[in-house]
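Posting for a labmate who doesn't have an account.
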Amino acid sequence: MKNMLSILLCGFACMVGSCERTVDIPSSSVAPTILLTADTVAIASGNYVLRAAGQSAYGGAQLRRVDFYKGEEKIGEKRIAPFNFDYKVNEAIPDQSLTFHAVLIDEAENTVKSNIVNARVKVLPIRIEAENATLRGVARIANDPETRETSSNQAKVGAIDNAASGIDATIQVLAAGEYRIRIAAGTGFDGTSHKVYIDDDESTAQVYSIANRGWNVWQTHDLVFLLAAGTRKISIRHNTLYGEIDYLEYAKL
């Protein structure tokens, strides 16, 4: 009877605006739960999305926040569902391993650490425009109207017409391994080819042949080289007849 009277009195008081509604959070030793998911690959310079799904000991409404960590470094937090966090990938070493976890905290100060998510850094192909490389021999830059219309960055390097002619590009290899070197080239002659070698070592040169599809019609050619870490030089030279180059790209396999 006493409890019923208290309820009636509180109800009357609220009707006249003299009481405030409060929510008591019960004490509990039950830990909240949290699961972290993400892709296994983190693209360099892109956003890596971490997705946390959790529940407090008293239901989702009692969650306070989710903290996100890379290794032991806190990289952000979310206080409103969905508990997703975009991490800007600043790492640029191919195959570098990153680890992430999250910590859920509820209103009763219960905390729980999520599972660990591992990601491998993938660096997308890095492009070097031929006209921005070092020109050798009689090679020259062209940016006539047709070239501007069809070529990457509206320019190309042509007149790769003798053994001394071509381009050199300096690259930084941050992790040793096999790299794909892709070259966009063209020709208006049958039987045209170029050779590619690393660090002035012509004994290991690889050759690609270019089909005659006309000038400013670009074909890509993929070659694989084993590169040591450090500063490397890629050389592309005339091998037979006459050709032109639009760009080259490199990426770790």
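Reply:
Got it, the structure tokens are right above this. The chain has two helices and 20 strands.
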